[in-house]
Design brief:
By secondary structure, the protein is an alpha/beta fold. The chain has helices at about 15-25, 50-55, 80-85, 100-105, 110-120, 135, 140-150, 160, 180-200, 200-205, 220-225, 240-250; strands at about 5-10, 35-45, 60-65, 90-95, 125-130, 165-170, 210, 230-235. It has an 8-stranded parallel beta sheet.
């Protein structure tokens, strides 16, 4: 079975004290995650070291950066490099979240560069893809997501792409309270896996974890995660509440 993942994206939320309390509350309720499961906390950059210290004695729990730059060093004030992440033992990074694409104009090619540099440093990219409501309304979501995959991931070798986690996030269901139905999530996840299979072969496609990101809650996680091509979630608002995120972790296959 593919690795099942509950990834928390805290975005720009929580004070240090709130972050520490939240991690403590979640970790004390999830001391037996299971070998086939992972929990990943994508925390603000200033909390990466603290979060790593909190999870030091846990199994199958990891910390991720919410973003990383496409260069290893240089005059890029305010950015975070892969070498910086490696130096503090952070081995995951979220790449191409819809908010980065929208607010910071990150292109598919720019994201391809980010994915590549992550893999060069053995940092696992959690690559986000997904469509906005106008694209869905004209039934162009499959072509739109395919183009994101082709332009950002399909220059990778078969060996490299197997190291990538993909997160499908329908933009119209992020922070809106709307959620794609479990059938809609499965449909797109299956489409993504099919496109990877056409490029790299079914064996490669079958081994890649694809997460759903879009208003996942404790109340709907089991239904969404139960679909055959859904391998967990990239969770926003619900990951900020221990009593919401813990049941989401436990809903993993």
């Amino acid at each position: 079975m593919r690795t099942q993942i509950a990834a928390a994206n805290w975005k720009m939320n929580l004070t240090l004290q709130e972050a520490q309390t939240l991690l403590d509350n979640i970790l004390k309720q999830t001391d037996n995650i299971g070998e086939n499961r992972k929990v990943i906390f994508a925390v603000p950059a200033c909390y990466l070291t603290v979060a790593n210290e909190k999870i030091a004695n846990t199994s199958n729990v990891f910390v991720a950066a919410q973003n990383v730059y496409s260069k290893k060093s240089g005059a890029f004030t305010g950015e975070l490099s892969v070498t910086m992440l490696k130096s503090i033992n952070v081995n995951y990074a979220v790449i191409g979240h819809s908010e980065r694409r929208e607010y910071f104009n990150e292109s598919n090619q720019f994201l391809a560069d980010k994915v590549k540099i992550c893999l060069e440093e053995n940092i696992t990219p959690i690559f986000c893809c997904g469509e906005a409501l106008p694209v869905r309304e004209v039934n162009q979501q499959n072509d739109f997501v395919t183009r994101q995959l082709e332009e950002s991931l399909f220059s990778l070798s078969a060996e490299e792409i197997q190291k990538v986690i993909i997160a499908y996030e329908p933009i119209w269901a992020i922070g809106t309270g709307k959620t794609a139905s479990s059938d809609q999530a499965q449909e797109m996840h299956a489409h993504i896996r099919t496109q990877i299979g056409r490029k790299y072969g079914e064996a490669v496609a079958d081994g890649i974890s694809i997460l759903y990101g879009g208003s996942v809650k404790a109340s709907n996680a089991k239904d969404i995660f139960g679909k055959p091509d859904v391998d967990g979630g990239l969770v926003g608002g619900s990951s900020l509440i221990a009593d919401e995120f813990v049941p989401i972790i436990k809903a993993l296959k």
